[in-house]
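Entry:
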Amino acid sequence: MNDNLNEYSQIGMAMARHFDSVYYVDTETGEYTEFVSMQALEDIDASKKGNDFFGDIRESAKKLVHPDDLSSVLEILDKDMAFSILNKNESYSTVFRLLSNGRVEHVRHLEIVCEDRRHIIYCLENIEEEVRRKREQEQDLQSAKRMARLDELTGIRNKNAFMEYVKSIDDKISADVLDEPFAIVMCDVNDLKVINDTRGHNFGDEAIQRTSRMICDTFKHSPVFRVGGDEFVAVLIGEDYIQREMLFQKLKEESLANKRSRSGPVVASGLAVIDPSADKCFNDVYEHADRLMYENKSELKAMHVRDGFANMEKIQAPIPDGRKRLLDGLFGALYTVVGEGYVYINDMKYDFSRWSLSLIDDFGMESEYMYHADQIWQDYVHPDDIPAYREAVDAVLCGNAEVHQVFYRARKADGNYVLLTTRGFVLSDADGEPEYFGGIIIQQ
């Protein structure tokens, strides 16, 4: 377990910034190590490492978990359940209550399966504040009028509100008093039925909620409706209408990035703009957007994301498939917990890297996968900043595990230079040799 733990320790510490308790567990031996402990576990002197995770954590659960939730919690903390998750899914989450110092606290339990399919990262997150806010929202929604027009799961407008909105537009079109043009973006969550069937409806609900946030965050100034189980409609008006092509492309790129990294919902979408000379009602535009959305849905399902490897001609030994899968696993874990910036991870033994798709797009690079990425990236660094950049790279290549924050300028795809800062870490193998180098690049 020590070799794998060494590889994942930095990722575990990164996750510790987002969760209140993190364990790294070998499901075959039961051996475990705790990266960080929540106060409730400290209060009962829960073990921080040992050789029987499933037994120890179940004993801790009996002391902490609310009696009404205990049976279901013990079920998910069973070793056979862990193996079942390994065989079917890459992650699993549930919510239950703890009794800590006489207070009831809601926590979210998350299990993430590591790339080797043998180890699991167990996390606990205190979500009492989130639950409190949700209760307040639910109280606000008690109004019959609001309940009739808001989607309970996502909090956005529902189909009833959509039909009312459509009628108001049609009334304006028929009276020839439509005061501003509009565009319709149809969206559909890909493979929601598969998610529900294989991972459960909790995962499906989360996919719908994340899709709703993704669409609303993209079209911030326009009404967004959930019109079906996995279907959303955004009616672009005002500034969003003016910027429709750019915003629509942003939505599609985010969806494609989620497909590549398997870190978020994959959303098929179609955009249609009203043509006053041809469209006699809202539904004419709606049907056009719907057709384009289904075309995009077919394209996404048929798409097999292929790896483009830059600098292939300079390599001496290509990275083995197993090492690449491990690199992808590390990248996925880091991508999941990072809230901002561009993520990168490098296998130093093969000098093979994976970088965020958003960085590839923003800087106009060839591929998210690269051999000798430091040489490629140097071409984008401002000439005056290359000495500082090379000094930082050389320090990493020499095995310096303490990676200092580096500031430099780099050229984006539009030719303009922006100031970046890089924060990184080095993971060493069992012999103490540097094996992985990764981190985050943030635009200032």
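The chain is about 45% helix and 25% strand.
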